[in-house]
Each structure stands twice: as C-alpha cells, then as structure tokens.
Amino acid sequence: MTRAVPLALCVIAAAHGAAVQSLPIVPRPAVVRYLNGIFLLDRSTLIYADPEARPVAEWFSGQMRSEFGVAMDSTTEAPPRNAVRFLLDTSLPEEGYRLRIEPRNGITILGSPAGLFYGAQSVLQLTTARGHSTFVLPASEIQDQPRFAYRGLHLDTSRHMFPVDFLKRYLDWMARYKLNRFHWHLTDDQGWRIEIRKYPRLMEVASMRKETLVGHAPQSTKSDGTPYGGFYTQEQIREVVAYAQERFITVIPEIDMPGHSLAAMAAYPELACTEGPFETATTWGGFKDVFCPKETTFQFLENVLTEVMELFPSRYIHIGGDEVEKDRWKESTDAQDVIRREGLKDESELQSYFIRRIEQFVNSKGRRIIGWDEILEGGLAPDATVMSWRGEDGGIAAARQGHDVIMTPGAYLYFDHYQGDRKKEPLAIGGMLPLENVYSYNPEPAVLNAEEKKHILGAQANLWTEYMADTRQVEYMLFPRLLALAEVVWSPQETRNYRDFQNRVTPQLARLKRQGVNYRPLDVQRPRSSKRVKQHP
Ligand code: ACM
Description:
Layout: H1 7-21, E1 31-41, E2 46-49, H2 54-68, E3 73-75, E4 83-88, E5 97-102, E6 106-111, H3 113-126, E7 128-130, E8 134-144, E9 150-156, H4 164-176, E10 181-185, E11 187-188, E12 191-192, H5 200-206, E13 208-209, E14 228-229, H6 234-246, E15 250-257, H7 262-267, H8 295-311, E16 316-320, H9 327-331, H10 333-341, H11 347-364, E17 368-372, E18 385-388, H12 393-400, E19 405-407, H13 410-413, E20 417-418, E21 430-432, H14 435-439, H15 450-453, E22 456-461, H16 471-478, H17 481-490, H18 498-514
Parallel strand pairs: 2-3, 2-4, 4-6, 9-10, 9-22, 10-15, 15-16, 16-17, 17-18, 18-19, 19-22, 20-21
Antiparallel strand pairs: 1-8, 5-6, 5-8, 7-8, 11-12, 13-14
Helix pairs in contact: 2-3, 4-6, 8-11
The structure holds acetamide.
C-alpha cells in the first residue's frame, strides 16, 4: 500500500530546502557564504566599473533594463554605497569571480572581464522583483570558478536552419548558464549553410534540398514535397561571432568531412569518387558517397577552410570525421592509388591520412582541429583534439595517447534523444535522456589517472536537428536539460546534488516562461514509494 505525502508538504519542504541549502543560481557556485539581510536595488542604485570592466557593466545595465525594466545610472567615481561595482581582479582563477552582496553597501564583483561577466549573470539570477521598481537580493558572498575550461553546446543548422535572431537567443541562454563554446554544425548531407565566395554553387545548389522526409527514417518514405534551404551569409556569420564574443563565447565552426558531404557533392560532383550526379539528401541517415581523397578535393577543402578561418577567430576548427562509409573508397582507383602511394594499410588509414592532410593545412594557419572520435581509427592526427560521442571510449583512448578530449557521449549529452515516455513526447530521433541522466554525468572517467584527466577539457551537449524543424522544438529539447549540462561542466563534482538542483531549476523555469521559452515541464514528482518505509505490523 502506498501512502501519499500531501503535495503542500512537499512544496514547503522544497522551498525550505532551497532557502537553506543554496542560492537559486544555476550552475551552482563553488562556494557560497550567507550574510544577514538583503540588498534592495532600485533606480537610485548606481553602477561603477573599472575602465577594463566597462563593456561588462554596460551589458549588465542593458540586461537590467530589458529583463527587469530598471534603468540604472553609471558613475565614474566609486560610490560609497548603494551601488553595483565591477572591479578588475586578474589574480583570480580564469573565468572565476568573487561576488559580495551587502545590505546597504550593495554589490561588488571582482574578476577578469570574463569572471565579471559570470558574476553579473549570478547577480541577474539572484534578482527578484519586489513591487514595481524595487528588486531584492539576498546578502551573501560567492567565490566561484568553472570546473572545466570547455563548456560547450552544439547546434546542427544543416538538417534544419534557424534565424540569426534565434542563434543570438541561443547564445544568450548559453551565457546565462555560463557556457563558453558554441559548436556550429554548418554542413552536412542535407544542406550546406555557410556562404563560401569561391564556390557559388554551394549556395545555389548545396544549400537546397528539394523536399524533406515526413515521419521517422527509415520506416517512413513520405516526403513533404516542399523545397527547403538557405545559408548564412558571411556578414551574418560575422554578426553571430561578434555577438558571441561580447558574451565570452567562442564559436567553433564545423565543416564535416570526408563524410556527411553529399550536399557539397551535389554542387561539385568532381569531389566524389564516382561520377554522380548527386542530390542534397532529403532523408536522414548515412550515405555511401563521401569526399574522394583526390588532390582536387584537398584543394577545394583548403579553399573552403581558408574562408572559414577568416570568419571564425576560434583557435579550434571542427573538421567532422564521423561516420565515413568506406565502400566508395574500396571501389575507387583514385582512392586506392592514394593508399598505394602513401603506403597505407587500408581505408581506415586512408581516413587518417585525409584528416592529417587537413590538420597540416589548419595548423599552417595557426589553428587546431577537433574531430569526432572516428578520427582515432587508423591513427590520430598529431595535434588533434577528440570529441568523444560514441560513449567515452574514444575520449579515454585519446587522453591516454596524450590528446585533448571533449566529452559528449550519446547516453548523457545527446539532446536529440527523448526526455520521457516516447508515446507522450514529440517525435525524436530515439534514445532516452531524462534530465536526471544529464545531471548524473561526470566528464572525468574514473579509469583515467590524474595526468590523463588533465586532457579532459570539458564536455558539450549536441542538438542534431533532424527532428527539430523549428525553434519551438529546439527550445523544447534544450530546456531544462541545458541547466543540467551547465552544472556538469561548471560546478565542483562534490557539490552536485540532484534534489538541490531541482529546487534551483524551478525559479529558472519561471523566468524562461516569462520570456516565452517553450521548455519541457519537469516530470511531476511522485512521493517516494512507501515500500521503502518499514511498516509496523
Ligand atoms: C555524430 O553524432 N554523428 C557525431
């Protein structure tokens, strides 16, 4: 027999827990100390910033205006009280900050510009309205810094693409939860989405598909009969990169090769091992036609990457490398000639040769490559960083070989997977990844020793958009899982606690709701089964 705990009791317990255990900040700060009282912020509160901190202070002031409707004045002389002070302190850990909220004195944030920015994000999360033009913040002291340097979120804009304004909102969400790497998946079988001036047919042909699958692949063969396409102009890309930079986010572009390249071959069939003709894919799944390792292909890719590197200041360029079907290479005299000429053992080594060639070019421009974990097969390129997606094994192997690693295992960080009972959820690619599973992830595998663990730069969640046709669906798949990711990559492992996290998620969802974000509601908490409670006879 189960005995239900009255809902009101749960709510009181949860509210009490939130007040006692932690400030409502996501991701949870490293160290929090409570002080007595509150600080009341209103129109009379001034903003002061050291010269190097002014861009962050201005951004904060803009957020106070747009999020809370309060216009704050700035001053160039440090006010004795009732102020928000942004003070440069480069002695703190990178991206770390110190934050002090005192009853009359106000708010003081210390850090490098990035740290100050994250401190400001914490302040915004702590700000709640009390009446029309007064805001209340709990007196407290925070000492905070990220656990990982790489805190990533990916978005596939090939399968479906989204307006620049939405990408900016995406970056705003990342910044709010202290993520700092946006992995922008720009090319794939179903569409090429980046303007490359040297190759106009990429925009005319590769950016378009004649129709799109309806339902789930491969069971469904129905199509919508409607052409779909578009691409981001170089001007738009510069706008997104600049917007990200203002929020301390690096945009890492991905140009996927040698697989996931059907759209490019539809435009330029000479890049393939067979004659074609090819069509930009209209359904989801893998395709046998991949770039052929010919000199003309390398020339094309170097020209493409040259334009890419002019647009993206990121040290890292992602070159894909995933899911390369080798059938065409086995049948192609061009590919087999390369295997013989280079003394390679097989097509896996040919893939490795392909990636090494590209790496040499990227390195020659002072940049580095990231590739999906398939780039381990046939031998890693000397300077490559590995993104481990087929579980953690690739990441573990790469770390043991002394390579840097970004963890993004499907079972924990693929946000295209279902969040609950699939009969009740919108159509998704498959899998099952409820919020709690994301939260439970630790990017440092226990099997690695301390030295190897240093190669785990961080983690990233991926949003592949085959089954996300519009921004509402992207939002649904992103929230609230994004909040769990934030805590996985930012908060100290020893402070992680799912119950405490849930308490802090609720006020975040209320904010998202006010902003009209289509988040997935939390599952209704069932009281723990009374089976665990010893019953007296
Ligand atoms: C991938 O999900 N194909 C990297």
